[in-house]
Amino acid sequence: KLWSVSFINNKIESKLLLNKVEDYEIEDNLLFLIEKHENFIVLKEYNQLDSTIRQLRLESAEFNKIKIDKGFIYIKSSFSEINSTLVQIVTRNHFHTFYKANFDINLELIDFNTEQINPVVFYATNERNRISIVKLNLLNSDISKETTILDETIYEPLSFKIIENQLFLITRNSLLRLNINLKTNLLYYSQFGRKLGINPTINLIGNKLIIASENYSELLEIKENRFWFLYYIYHNLLRFIIPILLIIIALIFFKLYQKQKKVFTELLNLPSANIFIIIDTKGNVEYLSAKARELLMLDPAVKTNVPLPTLLNNPIFEPILNFYENTIKNPSYNTQKLTIIKQKEAREYIFSISPYFAVSGTLNGYLINALDITEQLERKKMANWAQLAHDMQTNLLTIKLNAEQMSCEHMSENNDRKNRILHQVNLLQKRVRDIVTIGRSTNLELVFTNTYDIMTEAASEFDKVLFPNVEISVVCEKIDLFCDKPKILRAIRNCIENGIKSMTNGTGRIELNAWNEGKMICLSIKDSGKGMDEITKKKFIEPYFSTSKDGTGFGIGTIIIQQAVELHNGKIEIKSKLGNGTEIILKLPRIRKN
């Protein structure tokens, strides 16, 4: 219903004018209204609010709104459940339809600019999560279209209205004002969607902007911002600065991680580091240290991202595989002593496996750590032998004293046997002393001797009765030698013993020689034994190394040789070829007697 309300003589008077009025506007003292019927609407023009001048039947919808300018009447119609708006533009002069079209947008997102001579339609669309503002210029039968796409941070349009040649758009998170050329000149961020709900209205009074809905309204004041450009730069660059900073931080952390990983890898691959194997939860090997590759006989080029059983498919690694499989059934720390027989040599290891977890507590994988304890066991064995040798000294002294008191003057054969017994007891006492004192005495007691005497004395310690098929010859000249004679003598004796052990069936020859080589004196012990391969030659200078595979050798002889030469600041040279014998050369610096 349309009422006329007047204020006369301090009284308010009202009068019912028309029924069935859905919307209206007054322009030039003329009333334009939409009269709603069941299936259509009627556009009517009234003069002086009492008589109809003209009327026109138009298509109807659930909601219909009217807007007037000097030349045209704009009507937009829509249904609540259909996201579509019918636009009908009627000329005021001839009162007939000038333009008619359907738009797939909400009624609140389309409006008309009544300040222009020709009709202009503006509307906001939301396609592919980007809001676009479209301008349609209607020039007779020609239609030109202009479009501007808003920033992706602005989303979900709620209401759109044109006031005084300015376009106002409310979205869920902002308020925008654009000019008729679609250039944004005001941007204000606020969560309007939470406060206003659907279909908010926009009105402008002076510089006050009124935004309202059924249950909420805001009054905003529009002021000029002198620092708008800085704000614009801040707002637009912020989108890029934060991701760039995050990328830089991520790169820094990645570099630190790579550096830490590199340091960790270097530490794991230090010569003194143990055997390390890192396995993920699927059983794939993520990392192998250099010593682990050496143990598993893997080339450095072999990739590790394979299941652990694939790398342990050799039967000799079955103890490791069994240890791993038994542990992962119940993930917990576990340790076990394992024996690995590789290349007919038994090595003892202490294997430990421990699960490692992420910050969230989920299992990330397993770390296998192994330590070769073979040398430690050999040291322990050697210490036991040293204790035994210490205890044997008393027994040897008793044998020696009793042998010296034996009277064999009238029996020459017994006298020879007595001398042999005393000779062997003296040798045995020296060897027992070697075991007891090994690693303890580091002081040199230098005396003057020569190469021939020391070689001859070493050779005389090997009785022909015990080694009838071994020929020991001294072919060197007398070269002055200032050294710790007992230590060098022990070293030569052990080299001869090694040579005899390498002979097949105890048959062969040993040649002892010496010569000058610059500032060094070379003592050579050359045998006709089976020789050494390259691996054995390299391992010869390792502590506690022994070529014995039956457990009877503990590498004490090699320690005596190495220690004696090192104390004299000398070096050992080995010349050997498998099947062609071995020559060990002890190079000692020439020390002049003061």
Give an overview in words:
With 594 residues, the chain is of the alpha+beta class. The protein contains 11 helices and 33 strands. Strands 23-22-26-25-24 form a 5-stranded antiparallel beta sheet. The chain has a 5-stranded mixed beta sheet with strand order 28-30-31-33-32. Strands 3-4-5-6 form a 4-stranded antiparallel beta sheet, with no helix packed on it. Helix 8 (451-460) packs across helix 9. Mean pLDDT is 82; it is low at 549-554.
Which terms would index this structure?
594 residues, alpha+beta, five-stranded antiparallel beta sheet, five-stranded mixed beta sheet, 11 helices
Shape descriptor reads rod-shaped
Q: How far do the termini sit from each other?
A: 137 Å
Rg from alpha-carbon coordinates: 54 Å
Major β-sheet profile: 5 strands, antiparallel
Structural class: alpha+beta
Helix content class:
25-40%
Q: Estimate the strand proportion.
A: 35-45%
Number of helices: 11
Number of strands: 33
Strand order of the largest sheet: 23-22-26-25-24
Mean pLDDT: 82
Low-pLDDT windows of residues: 549-554
